[in-house]
Specification:
Length: 124
């Protein structure tokens, strides 16, 4: 019974800020995986890898075993998201509603992660 209580204390508490980060990351990942299904051979693999990378970084950000590196993973997720935004405009992707809404959600994702890191002073 003591081990169960100890495990409960170590669980990550999910608040509104965390829900926002999780939802925005999953939306971004799903959009990129969705774009993988389109016939543009030059970018298909990149879209798939981008979507998978978002999911992996999200898992790493909230994984209890990696809690000592949460701040570092948060910065990595922010930089990765910023790179995705820059490449979208640099590569001259079609500026359609889906693309621009995804970039807006990615900007908001960066802000939410920065707020979480600043507010809670995550370890390391």
């Amino acid at each position: 019974m003591a081990k169960f209580s100890q495990w409960q204390r170590q669980r990550t508490q999910i608040g509104a800020l965390d829900l926002g980060i999780i939802l925005l990351t999953l939306i971004t990942a799903v959009v990129h995986i969705y774009l993988w299904s389109f016939p543009d051979e030059g970018l298909r693999v990149w879209f798939l890898l981008n979507g998978i990378s978002y999911i992996v970084l999200l898992i790493a950000f909230y994984a209890p075993l990696l809690s000592a590196y949460r701040k570092l993973v948060g910065y990595a997720l922010m930089l990765y998201t910023a790179l995705t935004i820059v490449l979208y405009f640099f590569l001259g992707q079609p500026y359609d509603a889906l693309g621009l809404l995804t970039k807006a959600s990615e900007l908001l994702l960066i802000v939410l992660i920065a707020v979480k890191i600043r507010r809670y002073g995550l370890q390391r």
